[in-house]
Known about the structure:
alpha+beta; binds zinc ion; binds acetyl coenzyme *A
Amino acid sequence: MQVALREIGNCVIRRCDLSDLISTMEINLKTLPEHYSDYFYESLLAELPEAFLVAEVDKKLVGYIMCKIEYGFSNFKKLGFVKKGHVVSVAVLPEHRRKGIGEGLVLEAIGGVKLKKSDELYLEVRCSNSDAVKLYEKLGFIIKQRLKAYYRDGEDAYLMAIEFAY
Ligand code: ACO
Ligand code: ZN
């Protein structure tokens, strides 16, 4: 049983449990063309439970966000080598969108990667995915690069990132 990190109406955002992974994978299959192996979900949950979160309404999962921590070149500093959170995937079921759940998931994931003292958080998003781009911009992410043919179907991605101060 995980504690509620945030409540948005009747929706609770909390950390993911192992027993939530099947539902999380189902939401991913319904909402995004990028899919992952069960092993990948398990390893993200084991490595960064602070930023693998789910959104629950009436005991059913309606959204998730999962992240990892990486070490690499800064998206902000010219010569910096930094600890970066990476949003691997976030999604909310269509019938639960536009209620602030996606925003709540990203905000709590920011809190999770900050617990691990990350300097930055970044993600890739399809250039055509204006809903998601708007969400990230609302929360302070900045478009840092355009990644040519990043997706399997050839579409470009924006690399978006946010920098933290402690
Ligand atoms: N139209 C315009 N702006 C939007 C829309 C929309 N349809 N959806 C979200 N936004 C923006 C708005 O700025 C909104 O703030 P506002 O309500 O004050 O205007 C802000 O995002 C927050 O909206 P939420 O209600 O919190 O977002 P929601 O719960 O609907 O989830 C999400 C957004 C996750 C992008 C959802 O649309 C979704 O699951 N899409 C399919 C999966 C997806 O594209 N995931 C992201 C891929 S990139 C990645 O995973 C790293
Ligand atoms: Zn990525």
